[in-house]
Design goal:
Blueprint lengths: L13 E6 L4 E7 L5 E9 L10 E8 L4 E7 L9 E3 L30 H5 L8 H13 L2
Antiparallel strand pairs: 1-2, 3-4, 4-5, 5-6
Length: 143
């Protein structure tokens, strides 16, 4: 988006569920004024859900005086959080990135960094066609 088209008004921190086949918004949630969500993380449901995307979206939400961990149904963000966790005095520092991993595994030790393709593995090939078409040139360029 060109800078000239950016809103001059404050906009709420918002998360959205996007259908990766159509690239259309399925649902969204706007946080209250003065709060912002940090690096939302998708955690797949361990069940055998019928719809790709079944799972949870977790985000630490910063308020001026405290931090909350909010949990959402990933396919129904517009319903708001299904659970909120906090503690007296919890004020998390700024978090830039986060991610969910099904398991922890040690990385190879050596003097050379692995390629992007090695870091990603082959799972990106299972993405919907439109998304895969955007990822493939990046993988080829940085591998």
């Amino acid at each position: 988006m060109p800078v000239a088209e950016l809103s001059e008004q404050a906009l709420p921190s918002t998360v959205a569920c996007i259908d990766l086949d159509t690239m259309q918004e399925q649902s969204s949630w706007a946080f209250p004024p003065g709060a912002f969500a940090q690096s939302p993380v998708f955690v797949p449901d361990r069940g055998e859900g019928p719809t790709q995307g079944d799972g949870w979206m977790l985000a630490f939400v910063q308020f001026p005086d405290h931090t909350e961990l909010q949990v959402f149904d990933a396919l129904a963000l517009g319903k708001g959080p299904v659970a909120i966790a906090t503690a007296p005095g919890l004020k998390q520092s700024f978090q830039v990135h986060s991610g969910w991993m099904p398991r922890l595994a040690p990385q190879p030790i050596g003097d050379r960094r692995s390629s992007l393709a090695a870091d990603l593995g082959s799972s990106w090939r299972e993405l919907p066609a439109a998304l895969r078409a955007a990822v493939e040139p990046v993988v080829q360029r940085w591998s």
